[in-house]
Amino acid sequence: MKSREINSLFKNLSKAIKNPKSDLKYKSKFTLLVSVVLSAQCTDVSVNNVTKSIYPKYNKPDHFVKLGQKKIEKLIKRINFFRNKAKSVYLLSKQLIEKHNGKVPNNLEDLHDLPGVGRKTASVVLNEGFGLPTIAVDTHVFRVSNRTGLAYGKNPDEVQKKLYEVVPKKYLKKAGHTILLHGRYTCKARAPSCKTCVIIKYCKYNSKELR
């Protein structure tokens, strides 16, 4: 896409999605981190339904370390892959205490070093929790980026790299969530709402519905 088309694309998306932010409910940077870890291969709604009864009582690294892995499993057993995620939450809580004085680090390297935290999770936390201009490429961002031609890529890393190259600086901070929400509610995987899409003129998806 040409730079003027990219600017127009984000201008249209920004008008349609005025205040893009995560659908996850959290109380602090730490609970945001936990929620993002829990949300892997799981909907934000499912995570919120579980954490709404957890965070009022357990919301700090030492809380989860004291609970231990087995008790964490019981608390999150309704979430997909709850055993692996409980292990990650326990271990990352322990590491935060041991290496970061219980604080969530504000850089990609230290976040990525935490158990169960990949680049996507780290990027979400940095953007949502610290307000940094990072872009997390999930299935929605990946899909929209490829369908529009904004950032072609065979995998999330390729798409992320390209997005950093082409997204205008003034849109960079909100770009990830804006594209994600457009993908989640409009440019859906199986039944995209093409008739209400504000960036349809940039779409290169062969199966788009224009009638």
The appropriate CATH architecture of the largest domain is: Orthogonal Bundle
The CATH topology of the largest domain corresponds to: Endonuclease III, domain 1
**Sheet of most strands:** none
CATH class of the largest domain: Mainly Alpha
As a whole number of angstroms, the C-alpha radius of gyration is 18 Å
Percent range of helical residues: 55-70%
Class by alpha and beta content = mainly alpha
Structure description:
With 211 residues, this protein is mainly α. It has two domains: 3-20 and 135-202, Helix-hairpin-Helix base-excision DNA repair enzymes (C-terminal) (Endonuclease Iii, domain 2, Orthogonal Bundle), CATH 1.10.1670.10; 29-130, Hypothetical protein, domain 2 (Endonuclease III, domain 1, Orthogonal Bundle). Helices cover 57% and strands 0% of the residues. The protein contains eleven helices and no strands. The protein has helices spanning 3-16, 29-38, 44-51, 61-67, 69-75, 82-100, 108-112, 119-130, 139-148, 156-166, 169-185. The model has no long low-confidence stretch (mean pLDDT 94).
